[in-house]
Amino acid sequence: MLHCGIRQALVVGAGRAIRLAMVVHSDSAAGNAVPRRTGAMALALLFLVESMARASVSTVVAVQAFDLVQDAQKVSMLFTGVGIVALFTSLMIPMALRHVPRGQVYAGGAMLMLVSALAFASFTLPGQMAGMLLRVVGAACLNITLSLYIMDHIKRQELVKSEPLRLTLSTASWTIGPYLGIWLYTDYGPWAPHAVSGFWCIVLLGLFWYLGVEAGARRASSSSSHPLRSVSRFVAQPRLRLAWMVAFSRSCFWTVFFVYSPLLLLTSGLSAKAGGLLVSLGNVTLVTALLFGRLAQKVGVRSVIAGAMIVSAVLSLFAGLSGLYAMPVLAAVLLWVATIAASALDGVGGIPFLRSVRVHERAEMSGVYRTYLDFSELLPNVIFSVALLMMPIAGVFIILAVWLALAGWVSWRYLPRSM
After folding, report:
1. CA distance 74 to 65
2. Blockwise average pLDDT, block size 10, the chain, 419 residues
3. Which position among 19, 150, 365, 403 has the lowest Cβ density within 10 Å, counted as fewest Cβ atoms?
4. In terms of domains, do 145 and 266 share one?
5. Is 12 exposed, middle or buried (0-12, 13-18, 19+ CB in 10 A)?
6. Are 54 and 186 contained in the same domain?
């Protein structure tokens, strides 16, 4: 009965997504206006479905890897290797876009994630390794091409509305998905969460082709560019460097929050379930991204970014100190409030890049820009692994606070007021 209920829920969810897509489609059918059909809502719907596909296994991948190898160090090495592959993939995808239509790259990313679900479901070490690699490559394809579609179909002045909308719609995915995935994994076996993920990949493919997002998109020039040259051109542009720093900083916060917040509460006297609850509640605050988008329209993107970083820094500092002095409940509250500020960064933090990148370099620069995700997962863990040899877990949040404060000052000092 429960299996039938799960299948019915999936079908209902897919139906709602398609019906909403049909509304978006029908609104522009009379005038056949491509910009309306492929506007903010359509792109936000794609991101919503993609988030469902990724979030439903976000907590399962690491747990399943540990169940297979029974060694935390080996799991860490496995994730490090995958992270390195993801870094190089992000730089190579723009080269592929020179020769392969963007729509095929996007669809290919969804297909890779679908195949990764099948590999994960085998519950073997080779399947686990293949699944992790295919998943990160597929996610990179989706992330980069979606960024290009956003820049093609959303006007510069409308980004402050469309980006918070996109993040807000994904709130349900990242709030429900992680817990749903681990529940299905523990109660029904490895196949269940990966079946859900694969299902949403199929929905994503159908929704993408139905909306016709590729129509009206810019074509990449035929000249190729070496990844190192793309990195060099990216670094040579101050605004792109600033945009990368903003994205890297907000991603570092979430990396620390997901990995180290449960550990802080656990070492301070609370249970492991308390840490899991904090992470789930932290995802709920993504819904506030839409509110911060409206605030940015009034006070400017620069003010919201710099202010959110400073607030996150202060709260992270006091959360670490609260954990150090065995006040875990206070630490949890402070960290949860900090996720609200981090949600502000999620809502408008990508706008400096979207508004600064040159039209003819969008594909190459998007590949370089996306490396903030890979670096935010690699560098903090390397730094903290050394720091934790000399300080307790609270030191992680103190280090994070220092970085966020510095990034906030740099953002206020150097981001243009007109941003």
Report:
1. 9
2. 42 44 41 52 90 86 83 71 80 81 91 96 94 92 89 79 81 82 86 95 93 64 61 90 94 86 80 72 84 88 94 96 88 94 90 84 81 84 80 89 96 84
3. 19
4. no
5. exposed
6. yes
